[in-house]
Amino acid sequence: MMLSAIRDYLSKRGQATLADIALHVDAEPDAVRGMLQQWVRKGRVEQRKVEANCGTSCNRCDPAAMELYVWLG
User: Fold this and answer.
1) How many domains does the chain have?
2) What is the pTM of this model?
3) Angle between helices 2-13 and 29-41 (to 10 degrees)
4) Rounded CA separation 72/48 (Å)
5) What is the SS3 string spanning the chain?
6) Does 38 or 64 have the greater pLDDT score?
7) Which residues form the domain of 35?
8) Which end of the chain has fewer CB atoms at under 10 Å, N or C?
9) Measured distance CA(38)–CA(47) in Å, rounded
């Protein structure tokens, strides 16, 4: 059920951060990350890192907000 919810959400949006996906499916980011890896292994999703826009690398950003997942279809 949650795998299909993630698939549907990402396919409609095209891309989303781990934090956004976790919020949408009402689950912890670590649990969602594991489910997303199944889509990555199937070649349907690609994980990308988001670069900080503030110009620094202080690492104060939420790591879940820095993981971007792209639906490849």
Assistant:
1) 1
2) 0.82
3) 80
4) 12
5) CHHHHHHHHHHHHCEEEHHHHHHHHCCCHHHHHHHHHHHHHCCCEEEEECCCCCCCCCCCCCHHHHEEEEECC
6) 38
7) 24-51+58-73
8) N
9) 12
Q: Give per-residue pLDDT as tens, 35-51.
A: 999 999 999 999 987 76
Cα separation of the two ends of the chain: 18
Question: What number of CA atoms fall less than 13 Å from residue 71's CA on the CB side?
Answer: 14
- Is 62 part of any domain? yes
Strands laid side by side in the 67-71 sheet: 15-17, 67-71, 45-49
Please report which confidence band the pLDDT of residue 20 belongs to, taking 50, 70 and 90 as the band edges: very high
